[in-house]
């Protein structure tokens, strides 16, 4: 059905800037793929290339088994929701939604049926005669969504559609989009810089950096097995704690000023250890890997975030704790690293490398 | 009202006005002015819009185009008229010779419609640049994403232009419509004076030019003053009509 195949897609501008480099992904029918990355990573360019608003300089794009590289946007059977909604200011809500259908020469009755249906789903029925200027941000956003769904396209393209909304509305619309996409079973590609949006919406995620895909996979995969320091640092809130590990004669020193010592051996002189906030656990003083002096406690209701520095250094760590934990600013927490969920990265390349670290015991056994 | 004749004057009531309105020459001048204004406004607006749309799509060297297109704006109407009269001079004008070389029997000093062609051409050329600037800034004021949304929604670029771009340019167009009409009414004086002097046989005499001819050349100050008042009322009415009927369709 409406499978989208992106095969080695690349974009080089006339001035030689490479915005997108060699991206390949096979998107299944009905799948929601989120492209996420910091600003300037090429994610919007990628989406605009799929839409046809930006020319493709290398690679192939297939929508529904047809190569569409050279097709005009209107002939690609896609619908796009823009960041600033891009509604036609001189048309009513009804006309905004009907415009694309009228130009495709649909029967009047059919247009009316589809627009009314979409308006009902999006709770816009009362607003069909208004002009975009008379609508609130959230309503405009819904009109933009409506304009996309009435078309019944093969692919939805979303370009940061929620970034102009306030936090509450954003959460709500995020849910709506997911529900709608599930119900319509339309393939969708969604671009965002918000990692929470990305994690919650995606069937699969593409994390982009500098025009390159850093990692492609399900949100779970990317969270629990980040392929590089970049992915590890980008996903998750608060962001992952990263510590430099250095090989010593009698173990491994963590941090620049040796805040903790691990037994074991590194493959090479140094590596980087990533520990998520939830993988630091409270423990007794004797078992502790390190002691954290708490500087700030954020109570989020369901849980608690503590941010502090490791005693006797300036390495800052964040820890996620149970809401019942009785801690306050100035307290000292003995913490243990969850060794099942730590992430080792090569110090030079920043790539995940599970072989960086070997436990002392296993060496002793051999 | 006074009827100036030599140094004496005499009160004649509204006779100046009735004289003017009953004069068939005056009526034909009104008709010509309307016709002329419509032509100048239409062509200067449509050509400027065409150029602006084209320039807006050009990516490289757009600055050069813009500069060249804007230059004409810096020329005063009499200067434009002078340039025009030289280009169309039967003795040495390049355009005059060029058009005749193409096989047309062209002589604006003798043929009325040829003369109209000349004044319209020069007036349009003169006004093109300012219209172009306004249209270009209007086009650049349309959000890129709206244009892109239209590219996805509407396959035909011409239809897209008339359904999205042009309606969004409506405020600019309306403003220019008012400006251009008044331009065609008043400021083309210099052009006409230097190229055709209202001739041949009054075929390019606009209302303003007739006021000048009758008042300053024909020394009929009273009749000329009456014409001025009529012209003023006329332009006021025209502007009111424009605001009434066009303005309604402009707002969104």
Structural key phrases:
heterodimer; A: 366 residues; alpha+beta; Rossmann fold; OB fold (Dihydrolipoamide Acetyltransferase, E2P); six-stranded mixed beta sheet; five-stranded antiparallel beta sheet; elongated; disordered C terminus; B: 252 residues; mainly alpha; MetI-like fold; two-stranded antiparallel ribbon; 11 helices; globular
Give your account of this protein's structure.
The complex is a heterodimer of chains A (366) and B (252). Chain A is of the alpha+beta class. Chain A is elongated. Chain A contains 9 helices and 22 strands. Chain A folds into 2 domains: 4-234, Rossmann fold; 241-365, OB fold (Dihydrolipoamide Acetyltransferase, E2P) (Beta Barrel), CATH 2.40.50. In chain A, helix 2 (93-102) packs across helix 3 (108-121), helix 2 runs parallel beside helix 4 (137-150) and helix 3 (108-121) packs across helix 4 (137-150). Chain A starts with a strand and ends with a helix. In chain A, the strands form 5 sheets. Chain A has a 6-stranded mixed sheet with strand order 6-7-8-3-9-10, sandwiched between helices. Chain A has a 5-stranded antiparallel sheet with strand order 13-12-11-15-21. A 5-stranded antiparallel sheet of chain A has the order 16-20-17-18-19, with no helix packed on it. Chain B is mainly α and 252 residues long. Chain B has a single domain, classed as MetI-like fold, CATH 1.10.3720.10. In chain B, 75% of the residues lie in helices and 3% in strands. Chain B has a two-stranded antiparallel sheet with strand order 1-2. In chain B, helix 6 (112-140) crosses helix 8 (157-187). The mean pLDDT of chain B is 76. Chain A binds chain B through residues 51-53, 72-75, 78-80, 82-84, 86-90, 99-100, 103, 131, 133, 147, and chain B through 143, 145-146, 148-156, 159, 163-164, 167-168, 170, 252.
